[in-house]
């Protein structure tokens, strides 16, 4: 049964885009059919990583100018992936970003229904196993529309007090209100202050208690991921990188929670 | 008592009855007026119009938990009977029927009859 996963966070700069792109590619590498949608209409990024040709965007799809199949591009052959990896891009022009700011509530409601119908079309017509949304941080219409369309939310947080306080608020105010399964992923952890290894389990237990959520993993702060995250897919170019191994573990843990009814 | 006296007595009684009925009517009118003005004071929510508010994510998040669960289920399936929604939420059909009709009253959801079944749906404006 296909599953829809949203990568979300309270604040920006938590690594959502790198995580969502690499999880999508990792699934496709393992033979799954995946569709990755850039729902960060305020600051689109996937076009930087995948460098698509001129193509219909997800904005066109939401505006009913094209169907979802016309707004995604199959990039699997470029990366020699076993399964299909389709990517839907948000329009990165400033005109389009400004236009998205002017949408009213009726338009956003239509966008929600369009997202849900697009999801079903992808499941039925392209045999998608995993639909993955990258989203804007915090509470925005496009992000919440994606959350409503999801089966599982990966909430990404850094270890700073601002991010963690906001994450805790969103867990109670948004994720649980929507009744969606949610898992916590800590990213960009400074290992000088939080040495992992033997101390990791202790930190995981403390965070699990603090947030009262399933814990998906802790990813240290890797400078090369930050610098090169927009240049290439780590799971393709550097599959043995500890970042990729951490994402494999995230997937394993998430799937266990997805299996639970 | 002559017949003339009898007739006069009957006319007098009828006039008294007519006066009493008019007094009763006047009192009833006052009571109805009072009831209307008190009703306006006691049930102000009747004057709140939900017309025009879409069932978007902001509305969904503002609904009480029991209605949100129903509204989310209907949002996901698009159009459904109370039975369809109860299968999705795992709650009894009668409760879902009640919640769906509450959402109709609030103006978020519409309903239509198809043969013997009532279908609920969300209309994009």
Protein described:
The complex is a heterodimer of chains A (261) and B (125). Chain A has 261 residues and is of the alpha/beta class. Chain A is 48% helix and 18% strand. In chain A, helix 1 (16-29) packs across helix 12 (242-259) and helix 6 crosses helix 7 (141-148). The radius of gyration of chain A is 17 Å and the shape is globular. The radius of gyration of chain B is 28 Å and the shape is elongated. Chain B is 64% helix and 10% strand. Chain B has helices at residues 3-42, 57-62, 65-77, 82-89, 93-105, and strands at residues 79-80, 110-114, 117-121.
Write the layout of secondary structure elements.
The complex is a heterodimer of chains A (261) and B (125).
Chain A: E1 3-8, H1 16-29, E2 34-39, H2 46-50, H3 58-62, E3 72-74, H4 76-79, E4 85-88, H5 94-101, H6 105-126, E5 130-135, H7 141-148, E6 152-157, H8 161-178, E7 181-189, H9 200-211, E8 215-220, H10 223-228, H11 234-237, H12 242-259
Chain B: H1 3-42, H2 57-62, H3 65-77, E1 79-80, H4 82-89, H5 93-105, E2 110-114, E3 117-121
Antiparallel strand pairs in B: 1-3, 2-3
Helix pairs in contact in B: 3-4, 3-5, 4-5
